[in-house]
């Protein structure tokens, strides 16, 4: 069974997070993206492929170059997950605090 990559897999890698950050400033080609990294152009292309599979990057042909562009709205999945997790944990901590307060009074 082939597993579909998701946004969480994409942002798990620091190199991919830095690529997303660079692309958030505007579209770039693979050579421009790779300028700040001490890895090969092929390694950058693999990271771009993963980001593309996750929907965080779209690639288009401009003349002879492939240009990458960030789709930052896909990161809303992460924001939604963090928001829901925060609500869950805040609720649990409030219940724990109430329990501890009740225990102290006894």
Calculate the terminal CA-CA distance, rounded to whole Å: 56 Å
Order of helices and strands: HHEHHEEH
- Taken together, the total number of domains comes to 1
CATH superfamily: Winged helix-like DNA-binding domain superfamily/Winged helix DNA-binding domain
Q: Which range best describes the helical content: under 10%, 10-25%, 25-40%, 40-55%, 55-70% or over 70%?
A: 55-70%
Protein name: Regulatory protein, arsR family
InterPro entries: ArsR-like_HTH, HTH_ArsR_DNA-bd_dom, WH-like_DNA-bd_sf, WH_DNA-bd_sf
Pfam families: HTH_5 (PF01022)
Domain HTH arsR-type: 1-90
Please describe what this structure looks like:
With 106 residues, the protein is α+β, with helices and mostly antiparallel strands. The protein has a single domain (7-105), classed as Orthogonal Bundle (Arc Repressor Mutant, subunit A). It contains 5 helices and 3 strands. The protein has helices at 7-11, 14-23, 30-34, 41-53, 76-105; strands at 28-29, 57-62, 65-70. A 3-stranded antiparallel beta sheet has the order 1-3-2. Strand 2 (57-62) and strand 3 (65-70) form a beta hairpin. The longest helix has 30 residues, at 76-105. The protein starts with 6 loop residues before the first helix and ends with a helix. 15% of the residues are buried. The mean pLDDT is 91.
Keywords:
106 residues; alpha+beta; Arc Repressor Mutant, subunit A; WH_DNA-bd_sf
């Amino acid at each position: 069974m082939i597993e579909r990559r998701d946004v969480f897999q994409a942002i798990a890698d620091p190199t991919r997070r830095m690529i997303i950050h660079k692309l958030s400033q505007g579209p770039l080609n693979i050579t421009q993206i790779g300028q700040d990294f001490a890895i090969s152009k092929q390694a950058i292309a693999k990271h771009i492929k993963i980001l593309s599979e996750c929907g965080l990057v779209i690639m288009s042909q401009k003349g002879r170059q492939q240009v990458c562009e960030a789709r930052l709205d896909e990161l809303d999945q992460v924001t939604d997950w963090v928001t829901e997790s925060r609500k869950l944990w805040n609720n649990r901590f409030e219940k724990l605090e109430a329990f501890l307060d009740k225990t102290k009074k006894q």
